[in-house]
Amino acid sequence: xxxxxxxxxxxxxxxxxxxxxxxxxxxxxxxxxxxxxxxxxxxxxxxxxxxxxxxxxxxxxxxxxxxxxxxxxxxxxxxxxxxxxxxxxxxxxxxxxxxxxxxxxxxxxxxxxxxxxxxxxxxxxxxxx
Length: 129
Known about the structure:
- The structure is a single chain.
- By secondary structure, this protein is α+β, with helices and mostly antiparallel strands.
- The chain folds into two domains: 6-98, GMP Synthetase, Chain A, domain 3 (2-Layer Sandwich), CATH 3.30.300.20; 100-129.
- Helices cover 57% and strands 17% of the residues.
- It is built from four helices and three strands; from the N terminus they run H-E-E-H-H-E-H.
- It has helices spanning 6-25, 60-72, 74-84, 100-128; strands at 36-43, 49-56, 92-97.
- Strands 1-2-3 form a three-stranded mixed β-sheet, sandwiched between helices.
- A hairpin with a 5-residue loop joins strand 1 and strand 2.
- It is elongated and about 75 Å long.
- The relative contact order is 0.15.
- The mean pLDDT is 88.
């Protein structure tokens, strides 16, 4: 895997920031969940394509409707992105669901449960002594 250049890293960050603002402020599609966040952006070095990793807080139906809503709004988002950013080419946007935040929250909850069970066991063993 090729390491991103500093220029490409900055472009990724700018596209992520701009798309977050556009989605939260200008997009009025009812299919898109208000708890949608852009986790990461990978713009190709030739600026032709971009993979947008999104995280949606909600059930599977909400996630899929949000992905479809963003996919149908891709041309609008691309146009707004072109107005906001001064790039040689405005990339084609591809939206990919990313479950890493949800996975992290679930793992954190499981760790808390284990810690709670361990502390209960310690309390019970100290009472028995």
